[in-house]
Amino acid sequence: MSNPFKFLWDKFYTMFLWSSGADLEVLDQVPMEKNKFYGIGGTIVFTALMATFAGGYAFYTAFDDVYPSIFFGFFWGALIFNLDRYIVSSFGVGDGKKTISGQEMIEAAPRLMMAIILGLVISTPLELKLFESEINAEIKRLNDLTTQESEFNYTAQADSLAITFIKENQSIEEGIDLRRQELEVLRLKRNDAYDKYMCELNGTCGTGRPGEGPVFREAKENYINLNEEFKNMEASYGQLNEQDLQGIREKEGRINNLRDEARQKSASLRTEFESRNGLLARLEALGSLTDKDSSLWAAKWLVTILFVFIEIAPILFKMMTERGPYDDIIDYKKHQVKVRHMLLTSNLNEEVNTDVKINAEKSSQKLEAELLANRELLKTIALAQSEIAAAAIAKWKEGQIQKARDNPDGIITS
């Protein structure tokens, strides 16, 4: 093994050991335990790599941008790596037996649930990539089906209105034809009256006498009346027919506009659905495929179960691992830390108790000093009061003696 290769191998080996969440200094003391943690760390690292590919692919599918997808892929892989490392490292060796007990399952349940959720999240984008060709075909089928349904709805709406307009136009055209027939009947009557009128004038029919006689005047008047009626009817019906024809042209224009609008909506919808190829569309297509094809459903769930198993494998492995020297050293170090903590707590309690006793003694001494000072003060007050009373009595005595000297009779009388 060449030196550069050995250097890289040592770096990878150390990285895998660190990824397992193990204490590298402790592992150096028990090298026989390294392979166990190397396997755990390798599983965590390769799970993070799969998460990197899955996150990058999912982001690229959603946003169709390469560089942000690469950044997000590495970010997602680092996030999954950190979560996996925490989940595995925070779980101890269990009961130290090769079998998995019910108590171990209860203790590991929250971590197993987190690992299962991570496995599902990681597996979904990779499933989309594995079944990419089938998903693309299903997306096209679903888009075509939705587009055809929408086009049918648009066309049906336009055709329904068109049928209504066509029926209205047919009714209008029937009215126009009826007026034309009436006008044609009147025109024929007018022409017939004209022929009789001219024939009577020329003497080729009727009375057989040319010139303007009573019969001629009657035929002429009949012609004039019919001709006037024909002109009036022609003008009136011509105006009505023009209005009806204008209405027909407007309705035909609306029919053409509706059909053009339906074609535009259909084309716009088809363009929209052709570009519908994002993450949600792929998830919907995958769901549709698994609903229709049991083989694809089984393959999809086998892939999901595989990734979930890879995610929970380190935890199960630690639950089935017997206690080793590494665990004994870790427990010893934890016990040392616990004892140090208890010792520090005990010393702190002793310091606090000593301070309390000192403060209590100081308070007692201070109280005694205050009591002593109060006793001395009371004595001084009592002495002063006695002196004041003696001085007041002496003063009163002097006053009474002086009164007795000044007025002995008054003292005796009183």
UniProtKB/TrEMBL annotation:
Keywords: Coiled coil, Membrane, Transmembrane, Transmembrane helix
Source lineage: Bacteria, Pseudomonadati, Bacteroidota, Cytophagia, Cytophagales
Transmembrane segments: 37-60, 66-87
Organism whose genome encodes this protein: Algoriphagus antarcticus
Family annotation (InterPro entries): DUF4407
Superkingdom per UniProt: Bacteria
Protein name according to UniProt: Uncharacterized protein DUF4407
Coiled coil residues, start to end: 216-268
Alphabetized Pfam families for the sequence: DUF4407
